[in-house]
Amino acid sequence: MNIPSALRVMSGFVALFSLVPVTYAGGWDIVTLNDFPDFAVAGHPLNLAFRVWAPSLDPLANVKPKIRATLCPSPCSTDLSPQHRNATNTKGHVAKAQVKAGASAGEYTAVLILPEPGDWVITFDTEYTDASTMAPLKAIAPESPAPTRFSSAVRGARLFTAKGCSSCHLREGVGKIYGPDLTGKRFAPEYLKKFLADPSITPVPEEVCSSDRSYCGSPYAMPNLNLKDTEIEALIAFINKK
Fold it and tell me: What is the reported pTM?
């Protein structure tokens, strides 16, 4: 995908953040998982339902997504940048899933079986290779006790990729910078709670520019991801984490 000189950026937080220019090599399809579990059970089916769509919010119905899961060497890196991931997280076994089109345009389902215990990195290829990569998912042995629950901030970090936030925003080195950089930003929790439930409460400006005005463009509206209350709470904890 060619990125026009008048860079189109996703907005929503835009009234509060300034865009910073960062380049990214690759395409720009957005993948959002309906649910991203805290863990999986090795050898058991893992049902994945997800959407693929363009930043303009148009569903991408004619793509043929592919899903692959790579067993990480121990320890599994949490750095999801393509360069680091390709150097450190691709030496293990690979599992693949068959993807089926869902009932609505741009919706897809898949059944993935992680064949052995360990930390797995799930990657989605859409129109582009590595269109979206999830945080590591732990597969436990059958009949093993469930892992310790994640803190709210850690769960929010995982949702940051699973819900497609990292397709437009950067936070703690994870994500892209087609939208405002969230690194180091803090916001009133009540505002974030309302905004993440309904991004339309913040009007989309006519133009968004980088801090040095080297990039300007008309922004896309931030989509309503239909987040659950628990997901919103986790994302707030992550975004406002010191």
Answer: 0.80
